[in-house]
C-alpha cells in the first residue's frame, strides 16, 4: 500500500470525524457518569476496538477500496481510540491510586482485546 493524496485525504477526513466523535463521547460519558475513573476513555477504546473487529471481519469477506479502509481504520478509528490519552491517564493515576490505575490499565487492555474479538466474531456470524 502506498500513500497517495487521495489516501492521505481519506485518513485526514476520517481522523477529523473520529477525533470529534471521541471528544463528544468522552464529554458525555464523563458528564453523565462523573466518577474518578476515566470512564470516557475506556468507553471510546472499547467501542473503537469492537468496531475494528467488525470492520476487519467485513474487510476479510468483502473487498473495499484502500481509501475507504484507510478512512475507517487509520483515520476514524485511529482518532476515536485514545491509547496515548490512556497512557498518560494511567501514569497520572499511578500517582494518586495504584488500585484505580491497575483497574484502568487492565480494563482497557483486556477489554479492548475482548471487544475487538467480539466485533470480529459477531460480524463473521452475520456474514455467514
TrEMBL record:
Pfam assignment, any one: CRCB
InterPro entries: FluC
Description of activity control: Na(+) is not transported, but it plays an essential structural role and its presence is essential for fluoride channel function.
Entry's localization field: Cell membrane
GO MF: fluoride channel activity; metal ion binding
Transmembrane segments: 39-59, 71-92, 98-120
Key words of the record: Cell inner membrane, Cell membrane, Ion channel, Ion transport, Membrane, Metal-binding, Sodium, Transmembrane, Transmembrane helix, Transport
GO cellular component: plasma membrane
GO biological process: cellular detoxification of fluoride
Protein residues bound to Na(+): 78, 81
Reaction it catalyzes: fluoride(in) = fluoride(out)
Record's bilayer topology term: Multi-pass membrane protein
Family membership: Belongs to the fluoride channel Fluc/FEX (TC 1.A.43) family.
Role noted for this protein: Fluoride-specific ion channel. Important for reducing fluoride concentration in the cell, thus reducing its toxicity.
HAMAP family in the cross-refs: FluC (MF_00454)
UniProt cross-references to PANTHER family, sorted A to Z: FLUORIDE EXPORT PROTEIN 1-RELATED
Name of the protein in its database record: Fluoride-specific ion channel FluC
Organism listed in the record: Arcobacter suis CECT 7833
Amino acid at each position: 500500500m502506498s500513500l497517495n493524496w487521495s489516501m492521505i485525504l481519506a485518513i485526514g477526513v476520517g481522523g477529523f470525524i473520529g477525533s470529534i466523535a471521541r471528544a463528544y463521547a468522552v464529554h458525555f460519558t464523563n458528564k453523565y457518569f462523573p466518577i474518578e475513573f476515566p470512564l470516557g476513555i475506556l468507553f471510546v477504546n472499547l467501542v473503537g476496538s469492537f468496531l475494528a473487529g467488525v470492520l476487519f471481519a467485513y474487510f476479510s469477506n468483502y473487498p473495499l477500496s484502500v481509501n475507504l479502509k484507510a478512512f475507517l481504520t487509520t483515520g476514524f478509528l485511529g482518532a476515536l481510540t485514545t491509547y496515548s490519552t490512556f497512557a498518560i491517564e494511567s501514569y497520572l493515576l499511578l500517582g494518586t491510586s495504584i488500585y484505580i490505575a491497575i483497574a484502568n490499565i487492565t480494563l482497557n487492555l483486556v477489554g479492548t482485546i475482548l471487544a475487538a474479538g467480539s466485533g470480529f466474531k459477531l460480524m463473521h456470524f452475520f456474514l455467514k
